[in-house]
């Protein structure tokens, strides 16, 4: 168990960052990380030595998050209170506004697309690692990522969101 603990510690900052992006609120993110680590400790017997610990932890976090979302009756949209992660040094006002706009645009993405985008772009996971962490086929990862990028570009460019329905005969 002690060996496992020393292997997990380097992954905690990434888990916190991803949890913060998912939950959009610091205390909820901390709770999600704690729940993830607790479940990992309880399910340690299921982890295969030599396998990718990071992917295993992110898989657990994803499952815990999904269970929490399903358990809520109403999902509250909690603002980040102008504390957009821990940003280094002094930033120009334009940079702060751009980050705030990006954060708002990410919040408008569907959960499935946001999860894939964050794991690949923010956590720099491969498509295969992302597919394993989320329990979906690699093709689904690629299509969700493509849709997420396209939708994010549109939101950031100020394009109106148009939902088109296909007519099936």
Please characterize this protein's 3D structure.
With 169 residues, this protein is mainly α. It has two domains: 1-78, Orthogonal Bundle (Rna Polymerase Sigma Factor, Chain: A), CATH 1.10.1740; 80-161, Arc Repressor Mutant, subunit A. 65% of the residues lie in helices and 0% in strands. The protein is built from eight helices and no strands. The chain has helices at 2-8, 12-23, 26-42, 53-71, 93-107, 111-122, 127-134, 138-157. Helix 2 packs parallel to helix 4, helix 3 packs across helix 4 and helix 6 crosses helix 8 (138-157). The radius of gyration is 17 Å and the shape is globular. Mean pLDDT is 82; it is low at 80-84.
What's the multimeric state?
single chain
- Broad structural category: mainly alpha
Which series of helices and strands comes N to C?
Answer: HHHHHHHH
Question: CATH superfamily membership of the largest domain, which one?
Answer: Winged helix-like DNA-binding domain superfamily/Winged helix DNA-binding domain
Q: CATH class of the largest domain, please? A: Mainly Alpha
Q: How many strands?
A: 0
Unreliable segments (pLDDT under 50, ≥5 consecutive)? Answer: 80-84
Averaging pLDDT over every residue, what do you get? 82
Give short descriptive properties of this protein.
Arc Repressor Mutant, subunit A, mainly alpha, 169 residues, 65% helix, Rna Polymerase Sigma Factor, Chain: A, 8 helices, globular
